[in-house]
Design a protein that fits this description.
Blueprint: H1 5-8, H2 13-21, H3 26-38, H4 47-69, E1 80-81, H5 98-107, H6 114-129, E2 133-137, H7 140-153, E3 159-163, E4 169-170, E5 179-180, H8 181-188, E6 191-195, H9 203-209, E7 215-221, H10 227-243, E8 247-252, E9 255-256, E10 268-269, E11 278-284, E12 295-299, H11 301-314, H12 320-331, H13 336-339, H14 343-349, H15 352-366, E13 372-383, E14 393-403, H16 408-416, E15 422-423, E16 425-426, E17 431-434, H17 443-447
Parallel strand pairs: 1-15, 3-6, 3-7, 7-8, 8-11, 9-10
Antiparallel strand pairs: 2-12, 4-5, 11-12, 13-14, 14-17, 16-17
Length: 450
């Protein structure tokens, strides 16, 4: 049974799930039997019949509630991202944890205690990131725009210095290319000077550009540099900015709450970003945090105060729904082990042995598929997203399906048109499923395809 989209948010799915779990409990069966007798039913239902009815009802309730209780799915319809890209603009939703999804549904049917919510979220974020103050806005493009506008409104006449290697596109929901950093600064009408090239930026470039009073250095990561060059670039940038008394604003697309070096993932721990002259750090709520799409501004009290006033005046604070989902995500990731249980954490931290085991099981089940000639398993270094994530890679087990009497594109289309669509990578003669971004519970939909 399919329920129309507009009505799905009205369903009390948590209550439905709880009720379905009560099915076949002896106390409930006894209560129904007693009720039937008190109502004077001549043909009183037997316990076995009641149990059968309740079990069937429970199965129906679970099937109805499952699409909304599962972790958030990519695409316009619920489906499975098997391409390996965790942080790609092609996906319209994000991989939220079950707690966050449940909170969103709850907020659709109840009033939100916004003041209490803001206080809890701000205190938790400040504690986890070592920031003095916090502001949550719809996306990181708006976060940067507000920071630039507030600087212009201050009347200081600051000159913003933007190394070309840091002039990235900021991914955001609803737009394919995202927002360009330079274009956002131009919209805010700040004085901007670009330095260096897209391949490098010399120390002398910073020294010459940051001689103007009230300079602001804007950096971003990951940027256009090779991974091994980024640390030195940041170190040189900050050293010169400190010498010239320039303020530093940093966009951390790869900001994380915990040290992820043991996973082989290049990320930056947010709480370690507060060096001298760093006044503002901007991080996305999704990506390594694993929460909803939003822009999080972290910084000094005096800096965030003016930005917050401007956000309030134009209504650019994030919604209560977004803040509540972010709060639940942060509460569920206070330690590294907790974070690994979230969808993004699980995808990044799952061992290759675990992925190999799943791949072999899937290969056995798909070997008899009428459209598949053979199945192969390989290990590949896969990028974890498009745009700024193109150079960030992680090894994964890849399941390869070679079609029989049809093209690879036609085989991929069969999976994409299944009741639960599965989007995979199409090669010249086969289709590839990157298992790192497929949740174990989703394996069943791959083998069920016609």
């Amino acid at each position: 049974m399919r329920i129309p989209g507009p009505f799905k948010d009205l369903l009390p799915v948590e209550a439905v799930k709880q009720l379905s779990q009560l099915v076949a409990q002896p106390a409930l069966i006894s209560a129904l039997k007693d009720a039937a007798q008190k109502l004077g039913w001549k043909d009183t239902l037997q316990a076995a019949n009641i149990q059968q009815i309740l079990q069937q009802t429970g199965k129906w309730m679970e099937s109805v509630s499952e699409p909304w209780l599962r972790n958030a799915q990519p695409g316009l319809t619920p489906g499975i991202n098997a391409t390996g890209e965790l942080f790609s603009s092609r996906w319209c939703t994000h991989r939220l944890g079950a707690d966050a999804v449940g909170t969103l549904h709850q907020l659709h049917t109840q009033y939100a205690e916004t003041t209490k919510l803001d206080t809890q979220l701000n205190h938790l974020l400040m504690g986890m990131t070592s920031a003095q103050s916090v502001l949550i806005v719809p996306n990181i493009s708006i976060a940067l725009y507000l920071a630039a506008c507030a600087d212009v409104a201050s009347g200081k006449g600051s000159q913003w210095v933007l190394p070309r290697v840091d002039c990235i596109r900021l991914p955001q929901s609803g737009t394919t290319p995202g927002g360009n950093v330079r274009a956002i600064l131009d919209q805010a009408k700040v004085r901007t000077i670009e330095i260096g090239t897209m391949q490098d930026c010399e120390r002398s470039d910073f020294s010459e550009a940051l001689t103007v009073p009230n300079g602001v250095l804007l950096m971003a990561s990951p940027n256009a540099l090779a991974i091994e060059s980024r640390r030195e670039h940041r170190r040189s940038s900050i050293d010169v900015a400190v010498q010239q008394s320039a303020s530093i604003i940093e966009i951390l697309m790869d900001g994380s709450l915990h040290d992820l070096s043991e996973l082989g993932v290049q990320s930056r721990v947010i709480s370690e970003s507060w060096e001298k002259n760093v006044e503002l750090v901007i991080v996305p709520g999704d990506a390594f945090l694993g929460g909803p799409s939003c822009g999080i501004l972290l910084g000094k009290n005096e800096v965030l105060e003016s930005i917050t006033k401007m956000a309030d005046s134009v209504g650019w604070q994030a919604s209560s729904d977004t803040k509540a989902a972010l709060l639940r995500t942060l509460q569920a990731s206070t330690t590294l082990q907790d974070w690994k249980q979230l969808p993004v954490g699980a995808s990044l931290s799952t061992s290759l042995d675990n992925l190999d085991h799943r791949a072999k099981r899937l290969a056995t089940q798909l070997a008899m598929h009428p459209s598949i000639e053979r199945v192969a398993i390989e290990k590949k270094s896969c990028r974890i997203g498009a745009g700024v994530w193109s150079s960030v890679r992680l090894e994964s087990t890849v399941l390869q399906l070679f079609p029989k009497s049809i093209s690879a594109s036609a085989l991929a289309e069969q999976f994409a048109l299944a009741p639960v669509p599965v989007w995979a990578n199409v090669q010249s003669d086969h289709v590839e499923f990157v298992l790192r971004t497929i949740e174990p519970d989703e394996d069943r939909w791959i083998v069920k395809v016609d």
